[in-house]
Amino acid sequence: KYGGHMDLYHSTNPGKWDIHVGSGNHTARATASLYNGLVIYNHVKTDEIVCDLCTTWELAADGVTYTFHLNGKAKWSDGKPVTADDVVFSLDRMTAEGEPRPRTGALRAYYESSEAVDPLTVKVITKFPSPAFIQFLATSYPKILPKHVVDAGVDINIPGNIVGSGPFRQAGFERLGSYRFEKNPNYFKEGLPFLDSAEVFIIKDK
Asked: Which contiguous run of DSSP H or E holds residue 94?
């Protein structure tokens, strides 16, 4: 049924709200519905990787050049469009040397560079051919962040500062109590989300 409110229960607070800095499932669970990746594992056929922010992607014959075509309907929760610059910024941030990247830092072994070909096209170069690159991009941590927010110095480790492209947006956090989500009115995928809001209650904080 479309619409309504759902209560969920979780064992602890998120260690970090910044998904590129977070290292555990508690961070991933709290942020998964706030952001999108370039690609994602199919929730039905779980061994299949499908587009999330992209509409299509191609791998060149050289085995190292990926081209992602973004969904032109994708917007951030503040109404600004998701662009190729956001993707390049996010990939560079995920792999930044000398910065704590407990999960996304694994991409450093594969990622060479990326560039915005146009506002909706991103070219990504890997260091060598490897199927692990696209597989890792589809996991919970390599989310695309809004350059105009993060690059401006806004601390996205504060829940109220989060601007995402996912089906929900952050609607409140009470440490040791709960965190709340509400439907993102700018979400670009039709038919989702099914709920108007969700609230996660902490039942045991470590």
From this structure: helix 84-94
Q: What string of H, E and C letters represents the secondary structure of 105-132?
A: HHHHHCEEEEEEEECCEEEEEECCCCCH
User: pLDDT by residue (tens digit) across 16-55?
Assistant: 999 999 888 888 888 989 999 999 999 777 789 999 999 9
SS (H, E, C) the chain: CCCCEEEEEECCCCCCCCCCCCCCHHHHHHHCCCCECCEEECCCCCCCEEECCEEEEEECCCCCEEEEEECCCCECCCCCECCHHHHHHHHHHHCCCCCCCCCHHHHHHCEEEEEEEECCEEEEEECCCCCHHHHHHCCCCCCECCHHHHCCCCCCCCHHHCCCCCCEEEEEEECCCEEEEEECCCCCCCCCCCCCEEEEEECCCC
122, pLDDT greater than 80 = yes
